[in-house]
Design brief:
With about 180 residues, the protein is α+β, with helices and mostly antiparallel strands. Helices cover about 35% and strands about 15% of the residues. The protein is built from five helices and eight strands, in the order H-H-H-E-E-E-E-H-H-E-E-E-E. It has a two-stranded antiparallel ribbon with strand order 1-4. Helix 1 (about 1-15) crosses helix 3 (about 40-50) and helix 3 packs across helix 5 (about 135-150). It starts with a helix and ends with a strand.
């Protein structure tokens, strides 16, 4: 969750229009006495995970019989490893895939499902062995990001060198963002 939030801060600091839109919705909800998990903030978290999955690789054991995928035969019981970053940047799955666009996951005006779904990027895995903590992670990330957006302006810091280390998940050495308190 910390990696996802660090990357969300980074992306929002470099996309102030998205930051301002999310903040306006959060402040409007607070004024009405409602503080639900805003779908715009959840879409920001999903778009962040699509671009920067916290666990960049996953693997599964293939079926008990050989299978063919796009002309390649995968032998039975093969450990298949895929890079989630490559999936999230796949233009066949996500239009203009390198652009930070949380609206890609927004429901249509009539509430219809969006054309693109975070499940296509598989940041939580897939199938019966998907991440059991998905909903808790989404809830905690959206609540934390909402609280930060209500109280702070996220400002990009350009003179910070950032390196990444990877174990099971990614860890940045720094978050090149300054949190500037908002004036009430």
């Amino acid at each position: 969750m910390s990696y996802t939030l660090a990357q969300a801060f980074y992306l929002l600091s470099r996309n102030p229009q998205v930051q301002d839109e999310a903040r306006a919705r959060l402040l409007q909800a607070a004024d009405t006495g409602k503080c639900p998990v805003d779908p715009v903030v959840l879409n920001i978290i999903h778009e962040t995970m699509r671009l920067f999955p916290a666990v960049p690789f996953s693997s599964k054991i293939s079926e008990t019989r050989p299978i063919e995928v796009t002309g390649v035969t995968i032998p039975a019981r093969t450990n298949v490893l895929w890079m989630k970053t490559a999936v999230g940047l796949n233009e066949a799955l996500f239009a203009d895939s390198r652009r930070f666009n949380p609206n890609r996951f927004a429901a249509g005006p009539g509430g219809e499902r969006p054309a693109e779904s975070i499940s296509g990027a598989m940041p939580f895995g897939a199938g019966t062995r998907h991440c059991v903590g998905r909903h808790m992670a989404e809830f905690l990330c959206t609540r934390f990001l909402s609280a930060v957006l209500r109280e702070f302006e996220l400002v990009a810091v350009h003179e910070v060198a950032v390196s990444f280390s990877a174990t099971v998940s990614m860890t940045p050495s720094a978050v090149p963002v300054r949190l500037v308190p908002r004036v009430a």
